[in-house]
Amino acid sequence: MAVKLFDNRGTSLTNQKFTWKELVQNPISKLDDDAFTRVRIILMNGIEQQVNRFQHMFSQCNGELREHLAKVRRVEHHQQTMINWLLSGDHSPLETTIAYEQVAIEVTAAVAQQEPDPYLAQVYRFGMLEDFDHMYRYSALLDRVEGKDANNILQSYTDIMPGRPTAEEHRAPHDDLRHHYDRTAADPISKMNALTIMSGEYQTRDYYMNIGPTFTDPVARQLYAEIASIEEQHVTQYGSLLDPNETWLEKWLLYEANEVYNYYSCVESETNPRIKAIWERFLDYELGHLNLVMDLFKKYERRDPAEILPETLPDPIAYQSNREFVRKVLSQEVDLRADGPDFVPKEQEKHASKDYRRHMNSEGIPTEAVAAGYQWHPGTELSRQEPVAMA
Which residues lie below 8 Å from residue 153, measured CB to CB, with a gap of 6+? Predict the structure, then answer.
């Protein structure tokens, strides 16, 4: 279905209500539901989480809009609650981590392929290869600590193999800053793509920072610390794609449009009817929020939202395996490095990042230690026996 942003008022804010029983519904099945249902749940939790963070910051900077922000934010907090509580309690923190990395790989790969701006598409491919390596490192940890095969979570949609080595991803801060899109010229989908990927990475960074200290295994604790640092770099990278010249209200308008777009993408691809009904409900809720913000944009900035938003939503995010695309990028771009906002061959990387990385890795590298000698095969290392030598 095509969604016309200026013709659909959605559900009015006054009719967006919840009960506690509604907020905490039956979770999905860890093994029986399609892995992409979980991918959508995790991504939409991150989308809602980032919008909540943005609206709080906006409220702290603007007294006149505080009540509007508070009303919308309360509903979106409850939307996030309903979504996040769909994850079942039998996911271990490490299994959820594997799922988070699948989100990063598959959603970023999908966005990279639909992104019309070649530079922005390159940024997404660059980050995707790093998340791909994180998946491999966490899969090794899952095998060795819990004796579980990560593919039980991934359902064969996503490969488990090294990408750009995490040990080589650590960069000086200025090498994580990218050229931002131009708010006056960028395609609306480019703006929404940047918000989508930044939101997903921000959620991952926060999750690893919260989960990492709960492990007792020292290698696991160090592994989460190392990869959380890369997720901070990724949030810096994707956040720097946003044009700093956008006003607060313009950004709020884009955030709400991006929520509409992402729920629309979920509706179009969801295979679980019960979960699809949630996406449909929240799509209508977000259309209500968007129309409220469009009215505020007209009132306070005296600008037409059509300057910012497309009349019809772009094609939805494709929730499908991107194995062949990822393998192609891996073969062609794994040795790229960052030089300020640009990407260069490995041998042209500057000393600042090399020096930063050398110091960080000087007392051991957790991502190398956890994956030493590891190669994924179906099953676990304990289930594979070495052949017995014949006398």
Answer: 30, 35, 38, 95, 98, 99, 102
